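Researcher: Here's the sequence for the chain we discussed earlier.
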Amino acid sequence: ERADSERRALYRHWMPQLARDPFYNSNLSLAKRDFSLDTYFPFSWSAEFKDRPRVLAFPLLGGSGIYRAREPIGALSDAGRVQGESVALQEGALRYPMVTELARKRPDTVLIHAGLDDQVLGFLEYCRELFPEVFNVYALDDLIAQIPVKSSVFRIFKGLFRDARPRLRRALKSCDRLIVSTQPLADSCEGLIEDIVVVPNRLSPVWDGLSSRRNVGQKPRVGWVGAQQHQGDLELIEPVIAALAEEVDFVFMGMATDAIRPHLAEYHDPVKWEAYPAKLASLDLDIALAPLEMLPFNEAKSNLRLLEYGIVGWPVVCTDIYPYRTDDAPVTRVPNEPDAWIEAIRALAADAERRAREGDALRDWVIRGYRLVDHLDEWERALLR
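Model: Thanks. This is the structure I predict for it:
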């Protein structure tokens, strides 16, 4: 405690000199002693010249971090509205800046995406104490305190963050604003922080111009795309897949349960994000499936799956659950009962004109309301003081 107190006193008194030594080039690392270039935080802006607000983000890995930080901040930067940086993972570990590194870069906004570990909490508390002028924003796009038991990340997450809710409360105590992707997430955080802003997920220009062929197989191609966390969701439709395996060709990408795999006509491994939109479109599905367990975690999810399916023109059969009712999406919603799923899939499989009509309607719905470039004002307002 004494050492920490002395360290804080040192920072408060000597921060300008520690961050900007006039005899040490600002492009050299503050974390190493060999006068090497700073390759961990090589930001695009100069601390000495500023013509736009500066946003420094720390996104999670994978699609979540891309949708909730990298793409919005990148789009704002491209539009000349902010100078944005998303700190990349290096060698499999994320290091938050030392306070001297943060002072050197002088961001206006720091965005933390769903971080709960001790390093994140300590970083936010130092930011609040030493840089009161910095606008601290926390981003959340999952109900992290109620991860489904069947999710592949449940054991890992519970092992690390059994106290997820108290940790979230502590993180938000050091933040000025919380950005969430859905209203149920906002409701779940009521009382943890006063300033909560809902900014929905939307699609960046990487999805523009993609198309998927229709009716290319002898049977209708019916598929699902998702990550490893969807064990419980896929178990819902195991009897559906078994019942229809002779009538349609099932095409899955990303994962499949042991009970589903024998019934698949095709299985595609997951790919890196850069290749994901084109790979998804190349599946040439005639019908896309979106099952979700009726759980608080799923009730708080976004409609992202509908956006990705819809932008390539696929008609969708999905669970009748809150995220898939958003903005009256033109999809076929069914209860989580095998007979209802089988009936809905058979009806679409038997009617190619209806499939084309519903696929076009969903694509138009996505383009009208869910293109990121049409909603930069929302992100700009959310990220800046």
